[in-house]
Amino acid sequence: MNIFRLAGDMTHLISVLVLLLKIYATKSCSGISLKTQELYAMVFLARYLDLFSDFISLYNTVMKLVFIGSSLAIVWCMRYHRVVRRSYDRELDTFRYWILVGACFTLALVLHEKFSFQEVFWAFSIYLEAVAILPQLVLLQRSGNVDNLTGQYVFFLGAYRAFYILNWIYRYLTEPRFTRWISCVSGLVQTALYADFFYYYFISWKNNAKLQLPA
Amino acid sequence: AKTDSAKDEL
Question: How far apart are CA A131 and CA A151, in angstroms?
Answer without folding.
Answer: 18
